[in-house]
Automatic annotation (TrEMBL):
Record InterPro entries: ACOT8-like_C, Acyl-CoA_hotdog, HotDog_dom_sf, Sec_Metab_Biosynth-Assoc, TesB_ACOT8-like_N
Domain of life (superkingdom): Bacteria
Signal peptide as annotated in the record: none
Protein name, per record: Thioesterase family protein
Domain Acyl-CoA thioesterase-like C-terminal: 126-260
A family per Pfam: 4HBT_3
Domain Acyl-CoA thioesterase-like N-terminal HotDog: 25-106
């Protein structure tokens, strides 16, 4: 069991309740990363489901939980031969923090009938760059859990040279050696810096709603993350992320709605 597996572990209490312990190692300056929190929810949902994989997840982030004990409460909405649908709620101290609708199914390993091309092609890993290590007082502990190598133009905002377009691109793997799985993908779809940084915005950009789809089981090796946005308006922005595996297959897609950072 890796550190990430332990940090997302869900322990069954009864048919509808799982105990979890939210790990402060996945913090982004205080709040816990939304992808990490989805992975915690999905551990419970899949354990209780007759199917093996979370193929569609839509999560509403009501408020930011803190590290420590919490519960995942489940309500099964449908259990069919090919898919099951579950409502999952992350609860801490009796308060709901995340509401999610999750569809589970069992994916095979057949080649796709058809696939498009990535929205953008990244340079090789060795030509991409890491972000500087955050200062300890920043409480940006998430970066230590991941190994990310960024397409240089998309992090020009670090030197005050944003591209002016909402975009982010990087190669991704866990810092601790681990083959990617659906739970790693849940983290990956929310691992990039907010795409509005490249458009010139700064500050914490809280996610309000995030939907992601598991399209295939990923091959071992690096993942490629391609993030983009279509509209920044009235304090809101959208962010789309494609995740491609080392075999060149699209394995996950996401879209989120978030608030533009303040300060």
């Amino acid at each position: 069991m890796t550190k990430f597996d332990e940090a997302t572990q869900a322990i069954r209490v009864d048919e509808t309740t799982y105990d979890v312990c939210l790990d402060g190692g996945y913090s982004i300056g205080g709040p816990l990363n939304g992808g990490y929190l989805m992975a915690v929810l999905l551990r419970a949902v899949v354990d209780a489901s007759p199917h093996e994989h979370p193929v569609s997840t839509g999560a509403q982030f009501l408020r930011a939980p803190v590290p420590g004990p919490a519960q995942v409460r489940l309500e099964q909405l449908k259990a069919g031969r090919t898919a099951a649908m579950t409502r999952a709620t992350l609860v801490q101290d009796g308060v709901s923090f995340i509401e999610a609708l999750v569809t589970t199914a069992t994916l095979g390993d057949a080649a796709p009938d058809w696939t498009g091309e990535p929205a953008a092609v990244l340079p090789p890993v060795e030509e991409c760059v890491k972000l500087p290590d955050p200062k300890p007082e920043s409480n940006m502990t998430l970066s230590a859990q991941m190994d990310m190598r960024f397409d240089p133009p998309t992090i020009g905002w670090l030197q005050g040279r944003p591209t002016g377009r909402p975009e982010a691109r990087a190669h991704f793997r866990m810092a601790e050696p681990q083959d990617p799985d659906p739970y790693v993908l849940a983290l990956a779809v929310d691992a990039l810096p907010p795409v509005v940084f490249s458009a010139g915005a700064r500050g914490w950009a809280p996610t309000v709603e995030l939907t992601w789809h598991l399209r295939a089981l990923p091959a071992p090796g690096w993942l490629t993350l391609v993030g983009s946005g279509r509209l920044i308006s009235d304090g809101w922005f959208d962010e789309d992320v494609e995740v491609w595996d080392s075999a060149g297959r699209l394995v996950a897609q996401s879209r989120q709605l978030a608030r533009v950072g303040r300060g």
